[in-house]
Amino acid sequence: MTPDELSYTADHEWLRLNDSGNAVFGITDYAQDSLGDIVYVALPAIGAELKAGTSCGEVESTKSVSDLFVPIDGTVVAINSELEASPELVNSSPYAQGWLVELEPDAPQQIDDLLSSTDYNAIIDQA
């Protein structure tokens, strides 16, 4: 399940622009399914300046701990605080209630370098 309106990374993050022009991202359905039951999510601090491709947190499951990678450069303006009490939202609703971080993009054109749903599906089909 990879919604067409989102952009993706090869590291299994999704990203969308919201109405204010900020970028919201999380992990894909494929990633959450591979990880298993999510039990803890460590997210960056609000105000943190993040660079594309760097780790900004962790997603811990009953199987493993995985780094969360930043899809584009930007400043954290919000995190999904609901995940502190309910990390399982990443499993049940990875593209909606399970979002992770909202960034104010430094260079919104970086989104053009991300994968389409078709290209992302080609990657996971080979996995």
Can you describe what's shown?
By secondary structure, the protein is an alpha+beta fold. It has four helices and nine strands. It has a single domain (7-106), classed as Beta Barrel (OB fold (Dihydrolipoamide Acetyltransferase, E2P)). The chain has helices at 29-35, 82-85, 89-92, 117-126; strands spanning 7-8, 13-17, 23-27, 38-42, 49-50, 55-61, 65-69, 74-79, 101-105. The chain is globular, with a radius of gyration of 13 Å.
Write the layout of secondary structure elements.
Elements: E1 7-8, E2 13-17, E3 23-27, H1 29-35, E4 38-42, E5 49-50, E6 55-61, E7 65-69, E8 74-79, H2 82-85, H3 89-92, E9 101-105, H4 117-126
List the keywords.
alpha+beta; OB fold (Dihydrolipoamide Acetyltransferase, E2P); 6-stranded antiparallel beta sheet; 3-stranded antiparallel beta sheet; 4 helices
The total tally of domains equals: 1
> Helix count, per DSSP?
4
Structural class: alpha+beta
CATH architecture: Beta Barrel
**Strand/helix succession:** EEEHEEEEEHHEH
Provide the helix percentage.
10-25%
Shape: globular
In the CATH scheme, the class would be: Mainly Beta
**Count of β-strands:** 9
- Residue share in β-strands: 25-35%
Cα-atom Rg, whole angstroms? Answer: 13 Å
Identify the strand order in the major beta sheet. 1-2-3-9-8-5
Low-confidence stretches: none
| Named CATH topology | OB fold (Dihydrolipoamide Acetyltransferase, E2P)
Q: What integer is the average pLDDT?
A: 97
Q: In CATH, what is the homologous superfamily? A: RNA polymerase II/Efflux pump adaptor protein, barrel-sandwich hybrid domain
Query: Major beta sheet, specifics?
Result: 6 strands, antiparallel
How far from one another are the termini? 15 Å
